[in-house]
Amino acid sequence: MNVVTDNKWIGQRTIRPDGVDKVTGRAAFAADTTMPGQIWGKVLRSPHPHARIKSIDTSRAEALPGVKAVVTARDIVDFPVDKSVMLGIQDMRWMCRNVMAREKALFPGHPVAAVAATTEAIAARACELIEVDYEVLPWTVEIDDALKPDAPILHEYIKFEGRPSNIAGKLEVKKGDVAAGFKQAEVMVERSFTTRPVHQGYIEPHACLVSVAADNKTTIWSSSQGQFMVRAMTAYLTGIQQSDIRAIPAEIGGGFGGKTIVYLEPLAALLSKKSGRPVKMVMTREEVMRATGPTSGSKSTVKIGARKDGTIVAAQGTFWLQAGALPGSPIRGAVGCSFSPYDIPNVLAIGFDVLSNRSKVAAYRAPGAPIGAYAVECVLDELAEALKMDPLELRLKNAAKQGTKAAHGPVFPRIGYIETLEAAKAHPHYTAPLGKYQGRGVASGFWFNAGGESSAQVNITEDGNVVVTTGHPDIGGSRAAIANICAELLGIDYRRVSVLIGDTATVGFSNLTGGSRVLFASAMVVTQSTDKIIATLRERAAKIWEIDPEAVKWENGAAHPASPNAGQFEPLTLAELAAKAPSMGGPIGAGVQLNTEGAEGGFGTHICDVEVDVELGIIRVIRYTAVQDVGRAIHPSYVEGQMQGGVAQGIGWALNEEYIYTRDGKVDNPGFLDYRMPVCSDLPMLDTVMVEVPNPKHPQGVKGVGEVPLVPVMAAVANAVHNALGKRFYSLPMSPPKVLAVVEG
Question: Over the chain, what is the mean pLDDT?
Answer without folding.
Answer: 97
